[in-house]
Amino acid sequence: MKDQNFRNGDAKTAIFGSNEMLQPSPVDKIPDGPTTPQIAYQMVKDETFAQTQPRLNLATFVTTYMDDYATKLMNEAIDINYIDETEYPRIAVMNAKCINIIANLWNTPEQAKWKSGALAIGSSEACMLGGVAAWLRWRKKRQAQGKPTDKPNFVISSGFQVVWEKFAQLWQIEMRQVPLTLEKTTLDPEAALKMCDENTICIVPIEGVTWTGLNDDVEALDKALDAYNAKTGFDIPIHVDAASGGFILPFLQPELKWDFRLKWVLSISTSGHKFGLVYPGLGWVVWKDAKYLPEEMSFSVNYLGANITQVGLNFSRPAAQILGQYYQFIRLGFEGYKAIQQNGMEIAKYLHQQIGQMKPFVNYSPEVVNPLFIWYMKPEYAKTAKWTLYDLQDKLKQGGWMVPAYTLPENIQNYIVMRIVVRQGFSRDMADMLLNDINSAIAELEKLEYPTPTRIAQEKNIEIKGSVFTHTGSGRKKK
Ligand SMILES: *Cc1c(COP(=O)(O)O)cnc(C)c1O
Q: Which residues carry this modification: N6-(pyridoxal phosphate)lysine (predicted)?
């Protein structure tokens, strides 16, 4: 007799001839029984099928391309838990080698064979570790002086990434924000110092501000801070959030002082999975010297004479990213990284120039210092336009591109901007395809007879003040 049960799923079942493909996927409850791996695979795969191709996602900073050998190495290490150092001691050593290499890219003065740093799951964890270390150092000093420790604060520009809001809330450390303005597009050192006091655990400049792509001037801050610390007797340090810049500046602007060459820079964090060119999640934090890493945060593992310091918020974590990072260092070398970052910059500058010449747009900054930039609609064009950048975002999405539109941080939240991040995997040819699509989208939007819903909503929400749109419905959370 013919087997009439095959539709329940067995080796003979055609995936799309199975009963499962007639059922909704589980939402609340684990299914009663098993499903064949082929069908389960297809169901999970298909849930993400309609998503943007990662390489067309120009919103993300995170790596979407690695070569086949890197991918193979990482896939082969998918079953390794980093924390099992006793079982996989070579991974811990490889991790320490990566920290050494990064510390030296940032000009560490530390002489020890193994530099002081930590692996993290991304910049978020790395920033937290840098921030917690600054807080513990400050607390210890205050305790020794018999002074209160209940009101710590840190100072950062309003262009901070959300991790700093998390840091402030999770550790209950007050975040003092130096506002960014159209004239002052990066952290103003003098304004930052005005916010400091005896309870300031650190100042956090950003290299590669997420919102704008610009760099805070760490050298100027360091100089001003040196005078301030001398005058006040404080010793407020700097933690640099170099999530993007940490892997751009050493290659493209090696003469620029933003790192451990500066006196008050005691720790730096970066994302290995951004311009470190590794798939997520990977971050790094490095301290200038072991003495700046509080003992409470670290425990030492001795293996084959190597004293490996382990620091982190997580216990179990994937090891594959460490292999990926070490592979990239060997595969590319300094010159290889430089070539990739340079290409990214060239393509970003090309896009910046082309978009800056389009009738409706103006670039936020004339400079491109990291391979990303933002632009907005010319106020005089915006006044009569029937569309907004949100409509352009939607149009580009139809072609598979993800180019985000968003409003800037407080004080300049009037501005709806669009951002492009150029990463490894984005070529000049792709840039031309994107420019074509932007031009066609604009041509279509200009033919509109009636304003789009986002334009109508904007009209309701905004008052035109001078040449600037005041957009009251900022998407950003206000405290
Ligand atoms: C991306 C980013 C972060 C957070 O990094 P993750 O690696 O995504 O955790 C922090 N700060 C800045 C400036 C960033 O750009």
A: 274
